[in-house]
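Annex B. Sample input.
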Amino acid sequence: MAGPHPSWWTRLLLAALLSVSFPGDMANRCKKAQVKSCTECIRVDKDCAYCTDEMFKERRCNTQAELLAAGCRQESMVVMQSSFEITEETQIDTTLRRSQVSPQGLRVRLRPGEERHFELQVFEPLESPMDLYILMDFSNSMSDDLDNLKKMGQDLAQVLRQLTSDYTIGFGKFVDKVSVPQTDMRPEKLREPWPHSDPPFSFKNVISLTEDVEEFRNKLKGERISGNLDAPEGGFDAILQTAVCTRDIGWRPDSTHLLVFSTESAFHYEADGANVLAGIMRRNDEECHLDTTGTYTQYRTQDYPSVPTLVRLLGQHNIIPIFAVTNYSYSYYEKLSSYFPVSSLGVLQEDSSNIVDLLQDAFNRIRSNLDIRALESPRGVRTEVTSRMFQKTNTGSFLIRRGEVGTYQVQLRAIEDLDGTHVCQLPEADQKGNIHLKPSFSNGLMMDVDIVCDVCSCELQKEERSSRCSFNGDFMCGHCVCNEGWSGKTCNCSTGSLSDLAPCQREGEDKLCSGQGECQCGHCVCYGEGRYEGQFCEYDNFQCPRASGFLCNDRGRCSMGQCVCEPGWTGLSCDCPLSNATCIDSNGGICNGRGYCECGRCHCNQQSLYTDTICEINYSAIRLGLCEDVRSCVQCQAWGTGEKKGHMCKECSFKVKMVDELKKAEEVVEYCSFRDEDDDCTYSYTVEGDGAPGPNSTVLVQRRKDCPPGTFWWLIPLLIFLLLFLALLLLLCWKYCACCKACLALLPCCNRGHMVGFKEDHYMLRANLMASDHLDTPMLRSGNLKGRDMVRWKITNNVQRPGFASHAAGINPTELAPYGLSLRLARLCTENLLKPGTRECDQLRQEVEENLNEVYRHITGAQKLQQTKFRQQPNAGKKQDHTIVDTVLMAPRSAKQALLKLTEKHVEQGAFHELKVAPGYYTLTADQDARGMVEFQEGVELVDVRVPLFIRPEDDDEKQLLVEAIDVPVGTATLGRRLVNITIIKEQASGIVSFEQPEYLVSRGERVARIPIIRRILDNGKSQVSYCTQDNTAQGNRDYIPTEGELLFQPGETWKELQVKLLELQEMDSLLRGCQTRRFYIQLSNPKFGARLGQPQSATVIIGDQDELDGNLMGQTLSSPLLPRGDLDAPQNPNAKAAGSRKIHFNWLPPPGKPTGYRVKYWIQGDSESEAHLLDSKVPSVELTNLYPYCDYEMKVCAYGAQGEGPYSSLVSCRTHPEVPSEPGRLAFNVVSSTVTQLSWAEPAETNGEITAYEVCYGLVNEDSRPIGPMKKVLVDSPKKRTLLIENLRESQPYRYTVKARNGAGWGPEREAIINLATQPKRPMSIPIIPDIPIVDAHGGEDYESFLMYSDDVLRSPTGSQRPSISDDTEHLVNGRMDFAFPGSANSLHRMAVSNTAYGTHLSPHLPRRLLSTSSTLSRDYHSLTRPEHSHSATLPRDYSTLTSLTSQSSRLAAGVPNTPTRLVFSALGPTSLKVSWQEPQCERALQGYSVEYQLLNGGELHQLNIPNPSQTSVVLEDLLPNHSYVFRVRAQSQEGWGPEREGVITIESQVHPQSPLCPLPGSAFTLSTPSAPGPLVFTALSPDSLQLSWERPRRPDGDILGYLVTCEMAHGAEPATTFLVDGDSPESRLTVPGLSENVPYKFKVQAKTTQGFGPEREGIITIESQDGGSFSQLGSHLGLFQHPMPGEYSITTTHSSTTEPVLLDGLTLGSQHLEAHGSLTRHVTQEFVSRTLTTSGTLSTHVDQQFFQT
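Annex B, continued. Sample output.
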């Protein structure tokens, strides 16, 4: 039934509202969509509707409002209806001690693109049931941790009781998969990997969650440790089983589930490579696989889970992880914990003794965090949760308050398309589903969500072959859908009928509707939504005339092929304004009366080069070239001579008139005189009028020429000769005498038509519109552009104040002032130089500052340069691509003239020390004036003079600056326009913006600091200011969220509120800083729209508890009694500026009234104001002295008068300049050997700034401590690393060591020490090999060394890591642990015996067995480093290999041939990119370059790189194959030939695509590894001339092992080397080497021979010492082994020896003793272990071969 039709005015009103309500494309989206049916329409947008009214004539697909306005009835509209229904809602009961949410269930149907918002309430009680499950690493390294946990069971229960009365506690343990390579699979190791240990396992649930703490303690006491091989553990398997095995673990449904994960190692994860080696490829099925004993059973068949899997599963089961890890693995778990929305991370001590405290801290942190996450959401639905009550953290969780009902805003949104596919075309699973909106501690809300993708009902009820469609189509949804071949509204037009097509074809055309439309029933329907118009669609509305690229000049619209202009515009392209405003001249007239205005432009009656756009004559330009322009026409018309004589003379536009006398020069525009080349006579003429002579103009020419007398023709040759001689003389003077150039410039012959001057004579600037503090002022050169001209200029500030210069001169001349300096460098500018922080920019900055500092250090009082930056100068002629450097130099005010002279001198020379500059350009800026120079190169007409504008807050409302061109020191140009006036106008303020008060107090309990900002309106309009926060004792992102932005006051607004979010005080902060009151500043700046800043423009926000704030305020009140306040206001615009390292200049503007003086308070920032110093001043400025260098001070000032003291000004902060640091702290030496020492030092007691580097110098000295030769320098540019390892020092020689520190002010004094390493005790066991320690070689170069940086973190580098891995270190430890011994440890038996001499004085002659030991026990990773790792199931017999061959070779190099490059270093830059570095080898001759060769280890193409630059010691290689081993060889070349090569083997391991094994997965981690060398070398002395060498099988040999090649040579190369070939492939191989000498160091190298070739070498240096006559002669003659530090790596002697025979000690006979000495091993220490054998009286008494590979 038809409803009432809306009236016409209703439709008009609706259309108007629509045009306002939908300004963009949103309203037209439905209309623009090309849809063919009702269903397609309603799926375009959630606002689209379809009209099915048969009588409706407009477009049927539109918005509901527009369809209604167009006349469609409401009941005829088809729209998709959405719905929202809450299906389950139980109110939260806060008396229950469990987590609750409300509502619990809802059903939602959304249209594509539609959003729904609702609120979710979540309640977390103060106390709730808690389940705590402890999951612990049971590898052998955690044995002491387990012992402590057994003791602390009761303490753990006590902590849980404090949190809740309803708790359970459980325990599980894990190691790793029982497979190769994770576990040693030898039978004896599978039974007992360590003494008194359990067999290896993956995961075992030991104690299910129980309330019985005593049961927990008893079961835990029976647990024993286990073990595995590799350092990463299989904890991920254990976490997954703990989460999914809900029944076995015993998780309760309504409790808080906490999982404590305790380990000191890294973790294996899915597809990390270990399982690939083990053959385990199947993904984890995320199911529970625990047997009846609680043991995980699928460790052999399933891979580890991935990190996203763990995050998802722990979230589904309400489990919150707590990672309790040691320092060594903290970085791994810090990254891992960031993936969990709610988690905790703590650092365990070595023995887990702090685990109870760690858990208590973790509980408190977790209880205040709540995460709400949407699980199992369809792809077509997006869910977002926010809260107005609680702050959101970076991980997406909320900081909540327990015991309160929290309200959260949930947004559900159905997306419209996914990856270009409409959501309704996606699978049904992506359109609907049950979303689980789950908080951390409860089950949460279940949402049944469905996206509405219905089909219009009218399409299901269509009339097929309807009579309303002429039986040629179907009637559906109010209109006809025609069959193929028919068209029209009633399908009555046949598309193939010629009679219907004829009216649509234009005469002369063969296309219907001009090819831009289609013919329907004899009418053209044009394409393009209005683009084409006309009966035949012949007009294109995009092809109207354009102006400046805009259609119809953007001032009209295109209709029927023509522009229809807006009012006020005309023309074909609407480019002509009807107004003549653009033709009005400076006098208010039209075109200066010399033309007419048409189309907004002046058309001058007489066009010339000297008239501008409004026909105004440029007289200065006329004078520069008018005489020259008319010269040839005057010459040809008056005398018939010149270049235009003949027919060309007719082209002249004016006539000449011959007169007897001409007017005087001052009466005419120009008086001109020239010499006629034809008769050598001079003629003259005058030019009158406004410009160049026109067609009817007449030029007056003097009839009589001035000709030389005819009787002097003979003088002409003489004059020519003299002129040539004079020209030559002048040329020489011009070339070599600057003074002559200036004189020549005064001659008319040298400067005719050659002039320079400023383009404009006045600039007016508005301060609030200025974008910079300088102005580029153009300077022009006219006439002859040949040659170079240099112009000096100056600018003076505040010329409107006559006495300003004299007042400025009265300032203390010794006071430091900043001088701005700009120079043009002799190098092109690059994009990197314009980006601060790039390497190129930093290098050039350092070069510039070093050279300029060297030049300006001759100026008394000059400081170091600062604020150096680079730019380009546009409009600088041919050198505008050169780099301009801007820098600041602090120097006394009296040094200005000296600085200027020195700068000009070096600019003229083109160099500042070694820094090349381009002559002709500089700028030196002082406090109130500046001087500079610009250069015109040959052919250059215009350059910009960049002048500073001296913008100051205290400037007058209208300030005048004067720019003056001083002279032309180089060139022949004369100065034209010399002066430029610059006026800077301050706008009158429309409003004054400020804070209400200078300080605001905010309680810690408040979440937001609300700071009011007020505006006092002077002229009603907009005002805008910028604001930003600044740290004081409060720190951004720890105490508050830093913020900055702009505040806009609309007309009439007088008040705004600025909100700063405050952060809760963390427990660590309260411990470190106590109850210190925290404060920060808010600064206002950059007023716009005529606004001005009032006072106070800075506010201090003080954060603290209310009691503290009240106490502080009361204390301040009591400590400083108030003086009676008078009528004086606070001083205005306080300003502080550092005047040196110990002085600050503080000034202000006097307040209204008549103050008699001022009182200044100043104190160190962060101290209490009660500790402030007071100063009295009679003038509005004061100088604060005796301050600390590089220290922040706060200050304020008040005025006082007869009535008392006025209010204080706002606080001002200022930092004094840095001063050079004091000498570093004491030097400490850790003697490694007689040639190696580790030098350490302490930070200077007075840093006086930020320490940026240290310089270490060392050199030989004689007995009188006088230096022998030059000192060697090492720059340590990482100030936190105050340690250095120096190698290859000369033995038994004293060295002088000095260390000094550098900050921003320069280098400080040095700390000195002289030491001879040979006289110091050797303590190699106590050297702490620290990651990233700089190492230098005493045999290196004389200047700064490029030292090598070692690191522990290179094995598993994050993506993009460039940290190096050392090729000599073949046994990698991902999560290596380092145990350091302390001073007093020993490295040989006799050293240890001395240290224990004290025992002998208390011993009887016959003592029972006693154990003496020194140093620490072997670290746990000692064992993990030395365990053999192979797949043999049984140990092979250890039989001695036979000696099969013996060869010799020479080990000496020819003189001048370079040695082997040392320390081959690999740095992984990516999965296929590698950086190879090495250190320069020793060589008597200069090196000529290097050769780098590399190829696949298993063969392939050999790649060779030749490096001709000997200073280049690294190369980057790209396009390597992932997971393939490469062998690299590097050798050096000198004039004498190539030296031996250094070889290294490396592999970049990374995850690859399953279908493409040579393609790394993007973003995957990559790892450096090397095929193993043979195991650690173990030496056993058999006699004074023989020893036994043994080694272990390589862990990862490349191919099958055929044998080993052993090389033995003297370490110093005295004799040829000997090689041995050892056959066999045993787990441990041995070789007896005879024929050695005592007290001679030997170098041994062992490398495996495999089916693929020879592998990498294992090296060791050993000495059989004869100790006769040594410090232990009382022991008789003893044999011992001494292991030496190796060149290229570190060696620490590791000894283990025992004897059962009596030993003499200080004359006493002792019983059998067991002596031990152990050293810590790290990755940077050669993993070699020495087994010592003691003999008595030279006879071998006992030999015990101790093996250190047992686990």
